[in-house]
Amino acid sequence: MTVLAKYQRLEAEGIWHRSQDGQRLDVIVSVGKTSITISTPTEITLTHWSLPAMERMNPGQMPALYCPEGDAGETLELAEDAFVEAVEKVLDSVRRRQGRTGSVRRLVAVTFLIAVLAGAVFWLPGATARHTASLLPDVARTSIGLSLLSNMDRMTGPPCDAPPGLRALERLRVRLFGSEPARLVILPATLPETAHLPGGTILLSNNLLKEIATPEFLAVHVLAEDIRRNHGDPVAKLLHVAGIKAVLALLTQGKVPDDAVTRMAEHVVTTVPSPVPTDVLVDRVTAAGMTIRDGANLHGVPGLPLAAFATSVAPATLPILVDGDWIALQGICEE
Q1: Which CATH class is domain 3-90?
Q2: Is the pTM of this model over 0.70?
Q3: Domains in the chain: boundaries
Q4: Residues near 156 by Cβ (< 8 Å), separated by ≥ 6?
Q5: Which end of the chain is more exposed for a tag (fewer CB within 10 A), N or C?
Q6: For 47-59, how does the pLDDT look when each residue is reduced to its tens digit (9 = 90+)?
Q7: Membrane-spanning regions, if any (predicted)?
Q8: Listed residue (266, 270, 281, 169) closest to 224, CA to CA
């Protein structure tokens, strides 16, 4: 049995003063679970005191004198030794329990604070990266993209640049993007299929170029990567990868540190392309003058693998590339 349970029906006579100059009243004091009740002998309740807020004004002296916390004018005088001893035990138990509750509350508060700080660690860099990216002019975005491309040389090798292949690649760009600012780059190794850089650059793997059978298949991959490029801000995504120090350096110094550029470049090279919405890709493919084969039901199939999607694309009425350009493009990394 707990102390509170043992004494929860405890009652005794006492003397109560409503205020320092108030009339002296003979009262009955009863102890409850969380408070004491002060009543008249005829059981008319005069007031309640909270046990945790009850203070002993004259410790060790008798009769014992109590007051509510912060109000020494209202007092309660208790003269029965056994009752005072019981009240003290109840108060001691309540205070210990309150201390444990306070510790739990402090623990909860600290845990909450840690959670908030942990959330800030993950949320704040992303928010700062997005804000910083929104401030960058196009020339700065292009500069970041060029720095990344240069840094990738050690992983992928330099961009393929056989002149006939470059001319074919430019024709492919014009065919798919017209006058829109875009750049296509073929990398000789490492890159998994496709990627993109700030400033409108779309990267293509030479291995992908060797594996696909037609210019239409290649066009599907290029358009899919352009959809990814336009889904969110490429700079913001890369700055989030680079970390908060790199973001702050860009804000204060106007330059991304070299080690951050390396991290960003490694992220681009090693990230496997994510699926794109099939319906969006259908719209882009048809807008580029290609058609979907009869009987190919692509609607309602989200994130269809590009290899499966490409088999549903019929040759364009206006060729994506003529045969000579397609052959030249396939040899872009051979000189």
Answers
A1: mainly beta
A2: no
A3: 3-90, 136-330
A4: 187, 188, 189, 190, 191, 269
A5: N
A6: 777 777 778 888 8
A7: 104-124
A8: 281
